[in-house]
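Tokens for Restriction endonuclease. Go.
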Amino acid sequence: METFLQKAIQSIQSSIISFSKYITANDTGSTGAHQAGFHIHKNSWKLIFPEPGIKGSNKDKYVTIKWQDSFETSSRFIYYGTGTRNEYRLTRFGKGFPFLSDENIGNLLIICKKSDEYYEAFVLKTDEDIDDFFAELNISSTDTNGIIPKQFEQTAAENLYECFLKFLSSLKIDFPTTIELAKNARNCYNNAYSITDKIIKANPDKEILNWLDAEFQLFKTIENDRYLKRIQTPFETVEELVITANTILNRRKSRAGKSLEHHLSEIFNTFSISFASQTVTEDNKKPDFIFPGLDAYLNPKFDNKKLFVLAAKTTCKDRWRQILNEADRVKTKHLFTLQQGISKNQLEEMYKYDVCLVVPKTYLQSFPEEFRSKILTLDGFINEVSTRQ
């Protein structure tokens, strides 16, 4: 039986245009927004209309949407341009619609345009499906809330791309290690855009997202170079096709899994923060980061209040529980994530178990308003750690 993930990918490949986003508290109405309904980023107006909305007037469009390849709704895309509003939304789903409850916050919404009046939509709920979605389409989690590219698009500045090509030509192996990939992407980006330590310290939340995006673009550049000729050549057996596909997908997921850790390490080094990564604590557990280090953690005389543990997970809707027993001496576990939006129930459970989220500053608005004061930005986390060091 085909999964929703497989159906969503097939729908994207055969659609005119497609869109993805994390479902947020603003969509479900948990933030006290004007109304519940999926917010569509202004840059994605092509999903709906032939031209963008004009400030000063509203316009709408009624469509049929088939959800999860199962049931249909008669829904409404609308642009609000009057008064202070300037936004696009998808509304009107009928009674019993299952995807606008708080439990869906943090799930991934995919909308595919099949014709002017007919769309298909899917909601992916598990971390595994969401990670596989990004890997199979070769897009980054930072590319959500926008149009899904159908093919490689060079969006970086010319000098950045030239740096990528120089690195590619210098490689003596098929693929660099994840740490080498992250380092070179970061160096290319910093050199291309004249990013200094001063700039990084002024806005670490912004720069880590820029590094993640640059690394992803570099990875795609290498991947296209390494596999373009191979996929243009017929496979002799199905097994050979499957092996090649699995190799590509596994490498994508492996890179994504380590990327955050590598760039966070560079941020902490820039701020001259003492830390250790991937060290062993109780029961052979390996927390991503311990502050100020393993020696301090293993020293029973060291003040527990000065110890911090940080996990790094791209998505964490289900995986956050994995960090609960990684360091017994540290009561509050911090978790840095690129997840955009988590339901109230899940957030309440996280804080019940002393898990404190850390997210890029621009992602704060995707969480329920009453929890935002409890969520740290990367800059805020760095300030807390630095103060105690």
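The chain is about 40% helix and 20% strand.
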